[in-house]
Amino acid sequence: MKILFLDQSGKLGGAELCLIDIVKPYRDSCLVGLFADGPFRHLLEQEHISVQVLATQPIRVGKESSLLQGVTSVSLLLPLITKVVRLSRKYDIIYANTQKALVVAAVASFISRRPLVYHLHDILSTEHFSRTNRLLAVTLANRFASLVIANSQASQAAFVEAGGRPDITEVVYNGFEPEFYRSNDSNLNQLRQQFGLNGRFLVGHFSRLSPWKGQHVLLEALVYCPENVTAILVGDALFGEQDYVQYLHERVAALGLEKRVRFLGFRSDVVQLMSACDLIAHTSTSPEPFGRVIVEAMLCGRPVVATAAGGVVELVEPDVTGWLVPPSDPQQLAEVITNCCNQPEHAAAIAHQAKIQANQRFNLTNINQQIAQLLVQVI
Ligand code: UDP
Ligand code: GLC
């Protein structure tokens, strides 16, 4: 099956990391077209996946853009659309992995008469998207897509609530290769020593630095935790949220947490870092569409506390495979962290159970089979 995958980003967000795993089985007969250059291209090349950067200039329409901005951007999109139309004639399916990719792919699919698949990684709610953008996504998907793959029931429900057709929508969770999440014990000891962690309890936060990812909630929670609880914030401001980064540094200083919090920036050794943590905290203040970091922590055999909203409630069974706390509630988060710190055996049992379930539910081979079956039906 020949597939033209399209993604607007050159950066390594969750949607892009998910796409790499989906593309792998088709690497000999597919092309990934990007609308921006960046580390995503390098990673695809490392995996021997054909990739082309199709846009010559960045598309500057944001999730909250107005109709006027959207219309203006269409003129900028024309050369890109022309390129995609030409390319798509050589493929059986066009697979749009992001919203801007959907816009281009919808037009290309109409002209080149190739079926369109839209992988929906977002919750199309007013918290994240302007009315115009939601309307555009739903209208294009309803009219042109043969299949919408939602990354969780929460994303699917928001799509349908925004007017999306339920009959073309299927939920497929992100898939993961369990072997990838094994770590090396001697590296772990080294890492803990490097961070001066012996005898301390380490909470890891793995996410891009962005207000809705709620790193500030973890900082506030640390104040209510015992002194030996420390944290690493792993991730960078991928989409230019420099004010938030500044704010986080100011909060660390204001709360007197300089010796208890480290900012590690974007890292590619997430598995090693997660494995060195005692607990992984997920603190999104708005509903998380899926939340790869939660499953990754489970596969690393580390306990997870996460905010009970969006797709997260489909991933974590409270007190069985992790803990859930309300969004933006530092005190409850602190309570879970403290309990986890005081009851390591209970935490280990929960992490063990979570690992077993995650291995079964999010196994990449099964997930890719589900996608393959759906794609065959589309053709
Ligand atoms: N990640 C990473 N390096 C970092 C921080 C995060 O590789 O420094 C990865 C993380 O392991 C996860 C992805 O980025 O696979 C984030 O995906 P998630 O679904 O959790 O959130 P998103 O940022 O896509 O909303
Ligand atoms: C998006 C979502 C995230 C999800 C990822 C992969 O980036 O924000 O929650 O895990 O896509 O589907």
Descriptive tags:
seven-stranded parallel beta sheet; globular; binds uridine-5'-diphosphate; alpha/beta; 15 helices; single chain
Topology:
Elements: E1 3-7, H1 14-23, E2 30-34, H2 39-46, E3 51-53, H3 67-88, E4 93-96, H4 99-112, E5 116-120, H5 131-144, E6 145-150, H6 153-161, E7 169-171, H7 185-194, E8 201-206, H8 215-223, E9 229-234, H9 242-254, E10 261-265, H10 270-275, E11 279-281, H11 292-299, E12 304-307, H12 312-315, E13 323-325, H13 330-342, H14 344-361, H15 364-378
The structure holds uridine-5'-diphosphate and alpha-D-glucopyranose (GLC).
Q: What this model shows, in words?
A:
The chain has 379 residues and is of the alpha/beta class. Helix content is 46%, strand content 15%. It is built from 15 helices and 13 strands. The protein has helices spanning 14-23, 39-46, 67-88, 99-112, 131-144, 153-161, 185-194, 215-223, 242-254, 270-275, 292-299, 312-315, 330-342, 344-361, 364-378, and strands at 3-7, 30-34, 51-53, 93-96, 116-120, 145-150, 169-171, 201-206, 229-234, 261-265, 279-281, 304-307, 323-325. The strands form 2 sheets. A 7-stranded parallel β-sheet has the order 3-2-1-4-5-6-7, sandwiched between helices. It has a 6-stranded parallel β-sheet with strand order 10-9-8-11-12-13, with helices on both faces. Strand 11 (279-281), helix 11 and strand 12 form a beta-alpha-beta unit. The longest helix is centred in the N-terminal third of the chain and has 22 residues, at 67-88.
